[in-house]
Design a protein that fits this description.
mainly alpha; globular; 10 helices; binds zinc ion; 72% helix; 2 domains; 306 residues
Length: 306
Amino acid sequence: MWGSAGFLIGIVLGSLVKALADRSLSNKSFWGRSYCLRCRHTLAVYDLFPILSYVLLRGKCRYCKNRISIEYLIVEAVVGVLIGFLFWQEFSSLQSSVFSLQLISNFKFLIFIFDLLFKTFFIVILAILFITDIKRMLIPDRIIKPAILIGTISLLVITAYKVGYLYYYLAQTPIGRQLLPPSSGYFQRHALMVVQPFLLSLLMGLLIGGFFWGLIIITRGKGMGGGDVKLGAFIGIMLGFPQALIALVLAFFTGAIFGVALIIAGKKHFGQTIPFGPFLVLGSLITLFWGNQIIDWYLKLGTFIP
Ligand SMILES: [Zn+2]
């Protein structure tokens, strides 16, 4: 049920993804109504239902009957499936960790909702950049810069909220007050544990962005671009440690396989560039959905090696 709700939200976000990707490639304003690219007729609200409008209009403009690109349908469906899967996964793990939604505290529920919105936002930005990088080998500043800012501020706010809540929670009871400074170091220790992942996220952003920047300098701008630096920083902040590293490894791994396959198929020759952004997006999505399983598997692998 939550999966279907996520799918419906996802197809609406999918049409937003397509619009933002197109508009950032054509340097158009993000604001303003959508219109038919051929007859310039402003689209009505009933022309803008994701998937449904496309199917009902049989892929043609209502006003001039010009064919509408199938890309709209594909992007809406793919983002729908991704957000649907995210909702299904998140709500299943919520239900298995607590017996029912009634039992969960307001605090935990708020953190859960934040996490869900944070991951949804991540998927939307990744989808936009996937399209722009594949089409034009471009990661638009108009998307990636605000995305880095929003991601960082969201993490800062939620971290401050968690620390504040811990203090408020302890201050409510006489026993709790004993754990606050100056009586005890308990509060500081636990506050540090909450702040640590946030600092690691910032560090991951700096390290991965810096790593790509280093690659650009070494290769003199062949292969990587400034967009990859910003995308790498964004992924580092959003996934944190160690997930961001897994995404990076997966990106290089899938990118290398794809590159070799293209050379074997004779579509490209060695040294020709292919955009790296789509592989970073792919690696990030795999990590977002299965990162914990990959970490478990990796740790288990370690125990077999004496
Ligand atoms: Zn038209």
